[in-house]
Amino acid sequence: MNLRFLETFVLLAELRNFRMTAERLFTTQAAVSSRIATLEQEFGVRLFDRGVREVTLTADGAKALVHAERMLRLMREMREDMLDKQAYAGVIRIGAIESIVHSWFPDFLALLQQRYPRLQVEIACDTTIHMSEQLLKGQLDVSLQAKPVSGAAIANLSLGEFAMAWVGSPKLGIDEETLSLAELAAFPIMSFARGSEPYAVIEQLFSAEGNASPHMNCIASVATMIRVVCDGLGVAAVPPAIIQRELAEQRLRLLRVDREFPSLPLVACWRNDHQNPLAETVVRTAEEVATAFALNHGQAVARLPGARLAGDA
User: Fold this and answer.
1) Average per-residue pLDDT for the chain
2) What's the mean pLDDT in 219-238?
């Protein structure tokens, strides 16, 4: 069925005049008459009663008008969805590690809502290991984590990295001296969840030291971990990016340690198998927000995102 003919039918039903309809459509009265005749032949009914000066809908024409208007309205909505990014709709499942959740993720989510108000976001917060598995199984569309994911249907994009630092409360009485790992191990170590990247680094650091046997406490919630360290119950290695308020209020202080803690990589991983065409759009928005965060907080807190990781699809 020709949609242009339906548009002609709807306009003629409104104007009730062949000449006016032809002028509005920049065509001839004969062309309008031909289009209506074609529709009447397709439907097998008469759509209009023709008078001397105007036409009126028949009973069948009135019923056909309801459907024609609905079809044209759906076509307009389809065109708007295709042309207007703000009309993006659907569900996107996003996973994020806690270091991102407690830094630039709120800005990222706000920008998504502003640009794509019809987009529904489902959020999961977990370790890189678990989210990588969920991404490979198709349970997530996008994962903002600490390692790239290998897979034929997976693409990865660097979002920069967070500097990491040992921190503790002034209540611990640690002065400006530089601590060895053995001296640091005298305090309870509060760590991200077992299986997280920071936890693995802490294990490697103390294992390589040999003479340091820390008492490790794994806390799944970063907010809880920060609260516990603020209360002076131990030390932790965290990105300064997520404790800016605690540092400014002097509830936490950066500790001098003779072993540098490696930076935490930030990577956006997404399924590029077209199961969710919005995935890469969401990733590019995350890259934009991560870049702005790094610029606002300086290289000491976060390194700028880079390009697509080598070897990724």
Assistant:
1) 87
2) 93
CA angle 93, 103, 280 (to 5 degrees): 35
Residue 94 tokens read as: 């996003």
Reading the block at residue 116, the tokens are 């794509």
How many alpha carbons fall within 13 Å on the CB side of residue 248? 5
Residue 102: closest CA among 138, 136, 144, 61: 144
**C-alpha angle 243/245/251, rounded to 5°?**
85
**pTM for the model:** 0.68
pLDDT tens digits for 185-221?
Answer: 899 999 998 888 898 999 888 888 777 778 889 998 8
- Residue 51, both tokens: 């008078």
Whole-angstrom distance, CA of residue 213 vs CA of residue 14: 85
**DSSP states of 112-135 as a string?**
HHHH-TTEEEEEEE--HHHHHHHH
Phi, psi of 39 (to 5 degrees): -65, -45
The region that residue 298 occupies, defined by phi over 0 for left and psi between -120 and 50 for alpha, beta otherwise, is: left
Which residues make Cβ contacts (< 8 Å) with residue 283, sequence separation at least 6? Answer: 142, 157, 268, 270
- Spatial distance between the Cα atoms of 255 and 260, rounded to a whole number of angstroms: 11
Alpha helices in 149-278 (DSSP H): 181-184, 197-209, 222-230, 244-248
Alpha carbon distance, N-terminus to C-terminus of the chain: 42
- What are phi and psi for residue 68, nearest 5 degrees? -65, -40
Q: Report residue 113: phi and psi, to 5°.
A: -65, -35
Q: Model confidence over 63-87: pLDDT tens digits?
A: 999 999 999 888 877 765 655 555 5
Determine whether 134 is exposed, middle or buried from the number of CB atoms within 10 Å of its CB (0-12, 13-18, 19+): middle
Q: Residue 120 corresponds to which tokens in the numbers above?
A: 């529904």
Q: State which of 23-27, 114-118, 210-214 shows the largest mean pLDDT.
A: 114-118
